[in-house]
Amino acid sequence: MIISMSEKNLIKLIKNLRRGKNIEKSKKLFFTELQNNYAKWCKELSLRWLISIVDTYIDHGMVIYRNNAAIISTFANIIKISDTAMLLHKRDDTLLSDLKNDVTYLYDGVYSFKITDGDMINNLFYRLDVILSETPELWAIFEEIIHRLAKYSHTLQIAEYHKHFYEKTFFEGRKSFNISKL
Questions:
Q1: Average pLDDT of 33-53?
Q2: Which DSSP string corresponds to 53-94?
Q3: 123 and 171 Cβ atoms separated by less than 8 Å
Q4: Which of 44, 60, 67, 118 stands the most exposed, by the fewest C-beta atoms within 10 Å?
Q5: DSSP 46
Q6: What is the pTM for the complete model shown?
Q7: Domain locations in the chain?
Q8: Dihedral sign of CA atoms 131, 134, 135, 141 in order
Q9: What is the pLDDT of residue 166?
Q10: Model confidence over 152-168: pLDDT tens digits?
């Protein structure tokens, strides 16, 4: 049986790595802990620390982990930026009925997402599923981040209108997608 470290010790390792303290020892302990106990950390850590784990993979992980962690970090930070921007604007429900039924032109040939059944988000998650499956620790953390953002994020409140928002069964068996493996 593998004994897991405390949250306080895991956070200390992250801080050590960010501050350049005991790098080699901290890296070994950090990656061993995450490889052995990522499911535990997905349940126990706040969203802040889950994102910090991902950022630590970007800074110190092997190439495939760095790449996949960068995808996750970018996604989470875009949502954070979007949610912050939403605080600056009053919610306007006048477009809600239009967005439920059709797309709306935004800018430069780009249209909104059809919030009730558009497949853009499912296509994105399908692609990420294929890429992130090669790094199970990061994929588990990403799934937890998605679920937490869907619960708390104003940006992802779109999920309340969408029939299949982030349903794996909706995108898992898609034959029309072919993603090349490197």
A1: 93
A2: HHHHHHHHS-HHHHHHHHHHHHHHHHHHHHHHHHHTS---GG
A3: yes
A4: 44
A5: -
A6: 0.69
A7: 7-171
A8: positive
A9: 65
A10: 887 777 767 776 666 66
